[in-house]
Design brief:
By secondary structure, this protein is α+β, with helices and mostly antiparallel strands. The chain is built from 4 helices and 9 strands, in the order H-E-H-H-E-E-E-E-H-E-E-E-E.
Length: about 230
């Protein structure tokens, strides 16, 4: 027999002083503490064997390392990612009528995930834009001479260009390490990480340039993925 729910009683309504919940409401999550990690494992394919060898972050400096200031292109993308999104999710439903007389019910049949939107500040060397452009070009490359009027495109296999991206949310006190003789606090905020599986870019937005007041050029990209996993 199904349990019977009970409406909230007067005793269930919170009535004490707000001082009693001060510690609860005084720890909001701030949206400026995050990091996007580009865990690319197939970039040697879609960037090309020589495409970003100079950005490998090797211990032996190369002249071309000046384009990425001695960092790998993945580190540079992570630093310049100025906006990201914690993912949501939704269910597509089916309607069931007649299972119970006079009752209409809905049941989930498919879980869907919205696209991941990222925004980058563009560096003067256009490293971030080049990475994204090469990624999309590899998905649908031109199979003949690019300037041939009869050129055509042929899509590559998804296993060769779908990647993994991680989004990590942390707080101001996550890495706080007090100086002696103060001891480490009893509680610190933990890392919350989202892993996006089989990521690939679907839309690289246009960027407007114009005379007038100068602003930092931004690049926005929309990415599709199969699913995500969350670790709290």
């Amino acid at each position: 027999m199904a349990s019977k729910s009970i409406f909230p009683r007067r005793s269930d309504i919170f009535k004490p002083n707000m001082k009693d919940v001060r510690d609860t409401v005084a720890r909001p999550s701030l949206d400026t503490f995050y990091q996007v990690t580009f865990s690319f494992g197939k970039a040697d394919r879609w960037l090309g064997s020589n495409g970003f060898r100079q950005f490998s972050g090797s211990s032996i400096p190369l002249p071309e390392d000046r384009r990425s200031q001695g960092r790998s292109y993945k580190d540079k993308m992570s630093i310049l990612c100025t906006e990201a999104e914690i993912p949501g999710t939704s269910f597509q439903t089916s309607l069931a009528v007649g299972h119970h007389q006079g009752i209409q019910e809905e049941f989930p049949n498919l879980r869907s995930f919205p696209p991941l939107n990222l925004t980058f500040y563009l560096d003067a060397d256009m490293v971030v834009l080049e990475v994204l452009e090469k990624w999309m070009t590899y998905i649908n490359p031109i199979s003949t001479n690019k300037r041939d009027l009869n050129a055509y495109g042929r899509f590559n296999y998804p296993d060769d260009y779908k990647e993994i991206i991680h989004l990590t949310k942390f707080e101001r006190d996550t890495f706080k390490d007090p100086k002696p003789p103060f001891r480490r606090p009893d509680y610190q905020s933990r890392l919350t990480t989202y892993e996006f599986v089989n990521v690939w870019p679907t839309n690289l937005t246009s960027m407007r340039v114009a005379y007038g007041d100068s602003n930092v050029l931004r690049c926005s990209v929309q990415l599709a993925y199969d699913r995500f996993f969350a670790d709290f």
